[in-house]
Write a structure and sequence with these properties.
By secondary structure, this protein is an alpha/beta fold. It has 10 helices and 12 strands. It folds into 2 domains: about 15-120 and about 270-279, Alpha-Beta Complex (Aldehyde Oxidoreductase, domain 3); about 125-265, Aldolase class I (TIM Barrel, Alpha-Beta Barrel). The strands form 3 sheets. The protein has a 6-stranded parallel beta sheet with strand order 6-11-10-9-8-7. It has a 4-stranded antiparallel beta sheet with strand order 3-5-1-12, covered by helices on one side. β8 (about 195), α7 and β9 (about 215) form a beta-alpha-beta unit. The chain starts with 14 loop residues before the first helix and ends with a strand.
């Protein structure tokens, strides 16, 4: 069976090396618990969801547990008792890999499920939900893949593929205009520049400096609406800071183009699954 079955293309880069490392860390010199059973006895198994949400990490779990029959694709909706994959394997082999497969499946499904809640909350507005760099160490590619499966778009992948001039950059440089000008001299024409602003005067300065995107940091919906009315046709406006499921729709109704949410990757609860043996 293909190791990519279950993924929503394109699969994130580096996923196979990461999963191999996770397996090696968990199994170490060998699974001591398999002495309690006949490790070569064949057993049939299945994994089913235990809550409603969005499946993600299906391809990853399938790689860990292959060969198996995959019944859903990353990004599909699941409900309690939805069977997402099943297979047959030697007992010892399966039980030594079960936890690694479930860990990645539960975490990525949790990210995708929380993301889908935010996407649904802004339905009917022009705002798009995007993630941030607030990812868990080593998991950025997988977590950003999971937010895409949940319906969000990706913000910059890292410091290397987009410019964001934040408050400390501005303080160190002296002004927004000076910071933007210095960056413009040093990056290619394909690189977009975003400036963080916490008040309308800074938004105006960023627009005059020809920033491509202005991040409206911890502004009220009314203040964001003022920014949209004045500069929304000149620059992309991104809301960020203080965004949660209770506030995101008000932010979207202000007219901003993008809403970035760090909680998608740093605070998503796991979506529960379990692996059960079948007779």
């Amino acid at each position: 069976m293909s190791t990519c079955h279950g993924w929503q293309p394109p699969a994130p880069s580096g996923w196979q090396d990461l999963l191999d490392a996770e397996l090696a860390q968990d199994i170490g010199g060998g699974d001591l618990s398999i002495h309690a059973l006949n490790p070569d006895a064949p057993i049939r198994w299945m994994i089913e969801a235990q809550a409603t949400g969005v499946a993600c990490g299906v391809g990853a779990a399938a790689y860990v547990l292959q060969p198996c029959e995959v019944l859903v694709t990353d990004g599909d909706a699941v409900a309690d008792k939805t069977v997402i994959m099943r297979g047959e394997a030697p007992c010892g082999w399966l039980l030594s890999r079960e936890r690694t497969g479930l860990n990645v499946l539960m975490h990525l499904s949790g990210v995708a499920s929380l993301t889908r809640q935010y996407v649904d909350a802004v339905a009917g507005t022009q705002a798009r939900i995007t993630d941030t760099r607030k990812t868990l160490p080593g998991l950025r590619n997988l977590q950003k893949y999971a937010t895409r499966c949940g319906g969000a778009t990706n913000h910059r992948q890292g410091l290397h593929d987009g410019v964001m001039i934040k408050d400390n950059h501005i303080a160190a440089c002296g002004s927004i205009a000076a910071a933007v000008a210095r960056v413009r001299e040093r990056v290619g024409h394909m690189v977009r520049i975003e400036v963080e602003a916490d008040r309308l005067e800074q938004v105006e300065e960023a627009v005059r400096a020809r920033a491509d995107i202005v991040l409206l940091d911890n502004m009220s919906p009314d203040t964001m609406a003022q920014a949209v009315n004045q500069w929304g046709e000149q620059v992309v406006l991104e809301a960020s800071g203080g965004i949660n499921l209770g506030t995101v729709r008000a932010a979207a109704l202000s007219g901003v183009h993008v809403i970035s949410v760090g909680a998608l990757t740093h605070s998503a609860p796991a979506l529960p699954y379990h692996l059960e043996l079948e007779s």
